[in-house]
Amino acid sequence: MYGNIEPKSEINNFVETEKEVFYYLKSFSYLENIFSPILSEETLNFEEFLNFIILDGTIEEYYKNGKILMRTPFKNGLKNGKMEAFYESGKIKVEIPYNRGVVDGIAKEYFESGRLAKEIHYKNGKEMFYKSYFDNDNKQEKEKYSNGYSKDNPNRYYSILGVSKNVTKEDLKKAYYELVKKYHPDKFENSSKKEKEKAENMMKDINEAYEYLMKNFI
Predict the structure, then answer these.
(1) Domain housing 80
(2) Where are the alpha helices (DSSP H) in the chain?
(3) CATH number of the domain that 165 lies in?
(4) 169-183 and 193-215 helices cross at what angle (nearest 10)?
(5) Looking at residue 95, what is its pLDDT?
């Protein structure tokens, strides 16, 4: 499914600031922004309208100059695959991985220079931690987890494995093995180099977290 329907508001003002970007990441209300002006001329509201459609394919939005603004893949009515937002120059600005309607994996934001600005790691829709960078030689500025822990704080390992500090040893092992099954290199033999590197980095963090927590388990 493709379309270049524009809302009445200035679409080319979208995705101009970090605040707008992350509001957009959280709300994902752009479909309503697109269709509501059209539906307002009818008797059908947006929620009722959605009951009549099952999105399956890709929706594309464009700046007024015709360049791509956003590309969102759907499958059976749910976001599925990599959602992308772009600068008006055409360069990538945001990438968000979806799995059956849930953010899962590493969402990325880029400077217009093309350098990585921020990474947000998600597990089944839950933000685990993020990294942000300077716009020069990809130099790291800070790395923090969603609970506020810095990289050198051992409490971050709970976040990596998605467990609480009260986790039992049995549940800790279960969480670890579930993540190993998900990110094991064998599952990415036929994947792209980028996906392989992502899985390798995740496995490194997972193993480090598991080894530390098991070694220091009380």
Answers:
(1) 1-151
(2) 18-27, 30-39, 46-50, 156-161, 169-183, 193-215
(3) 1.10.287.110
(4) 170
(5) 94
Whether residues 44 and 106 fall in one domain: yes
Query: Which CATH number do you get for residue 133?
Result: 3.90.930
pLDDT tens by residue, 84-141: 999 999 999 999 999 998 999 999 999 898 988 888 888 888 877 777 777 765 445 4
Q: Assign 45 a pLDDT band (cuts: 50, 70, 90).
A: low
- CA 82 to CA 208: how far, in whole Å? 28
pLDDT for 148-176, tens place per residue? 444 556 677 888 888 888 889 999 999 99
DSSP track, 142-184: EEEETTS-BTT-TTHHHHHHT--TT--HHHHHHHHHHHHHHH-
Cα–Cα dist 127/131, whole Å? 12
DSSP alpha helix (H) spans, 28-148 = 30-39, 46-50
Co-location of 211 and 199 in the same domain: yes
3-state SS class at 217: coil
Q: Give the integer Cα–Cα distance in Å for 148 and 48.
A: 40
* Domain tally, the chain: 2
Average of pLDDT values for 214-218? 76
Q: How many CB atoms lie within 10 A of CB 139?
A: 9
